[in-house]
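Structure first, sequence second, as always.
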């Protein structure tokens, strides 16, 4: 068994007696007995994470086979996320997307009449994003090192917080970058979801690159330290037959992989489905006055 982390829980500060949940291919998963946060220990090195985040890592949607189809799936999911902002942000408001990737969330912000900006660590992605949105809108950095005098109406972090080494630092920085009354939107795997409870150590979101796992309770605790949570609920995404098949082959372990393969026979290949994916969605607001 791996040694207990010396500073186990960055959420509540607990350093004693974490519960060892299980081990998957040498990766150990621990749970804080005080607050319930789940984390990896030891965490992968920066070098190992760089190898994981290869160009192929971002092609689960089938971009190489059907670029426009993959784009439409992501756009549809981000539109679902942005519904929470209806009536809350004026036309022309500014949005900062942290981990902008290929810019799909920024595209949705733009079609809503908002001004999108993006942070991205991949040099190739930054080059493509600057072609789409302009050099002055895209920054080749993470949020911890990002400095600006601008304050944003909205900050988005979709499928990001589980990847960072210090979640408190990231949310605290987001709070500083928001204008009073501004909104943070995020999504992340939900370790308390039905799929997580049913699948146990075979849950599809248990990955080497996911350093922390939140449920609705621990997410609320994280957000309340810096902002005012407005909504924390189960998350839905728009999925296609192709997306499910590709994700299944890459991430789902036996025996569930075979079950998904069998189930795909009953799904039309052109179908688009809105499904709960074992994740949570959260929205939190910066107080108007502090």
């Amino acid at each position: 068994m791996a040694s207990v982390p010396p500073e186990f829980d960055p959420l509540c500060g607990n350093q004693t007696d974490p519960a060892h949940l299980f081990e998957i291919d040498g990766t150990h998963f621990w749970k804080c007995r005080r607050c319930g946060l789940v984390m990896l220990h030891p965490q992968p090195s920066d070098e190992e994470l760089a190898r994981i985040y290869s160009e192929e890592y971002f092609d689960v949607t089938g971009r190489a086979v059907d670029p426009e189809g993959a784009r439409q799936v992501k756009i549809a999911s981000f539109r679902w996320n942005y519904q929470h902002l209806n009536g809350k942000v004026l036309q022309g408001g500014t949005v900062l997307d942290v981990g902008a990737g290929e810019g799909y969330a920024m595209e949705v912000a733009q079609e809503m009449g908002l001004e999108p900006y993006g942070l991205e660590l991949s040099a190739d992605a930054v080059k493509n994003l600057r072609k789409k949105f302009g050099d002055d809108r895209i920054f080749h950095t993470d949020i911890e090192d990002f400095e600006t005098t601008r304050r944003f109406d909205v900050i988005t972090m979709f499928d990001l917080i589980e990847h960072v080494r210090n979640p408190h630092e990231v949310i605290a920085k987001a709070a500083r970058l928001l204008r009073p009354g501004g909104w943070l939107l995020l999504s992340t795997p939900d370790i308390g979801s039905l799929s997580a409870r049913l699948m146990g150590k075979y849950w599809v979101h248990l990955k080497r690159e996911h350093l922390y796992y939140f449920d609705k309770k621990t997410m609320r605790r994280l957000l309340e330290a810096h902002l005012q949570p407005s909504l924390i609920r189960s998350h839905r995404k728009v999925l296609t037959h192709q997306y499910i098949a590709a994700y299944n082959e890459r991430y789902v372990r036996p025996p569930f992989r075979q079950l998904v393969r069998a189930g795909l026979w009953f799904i039309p290949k052109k179908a688009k489905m809105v499904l709960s994916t074992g994740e949570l969605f959260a929205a939190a607001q910066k107080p108007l006055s502090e």
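Margin note: Residues 112 and 135 are 21 Å apart (CA to CA).
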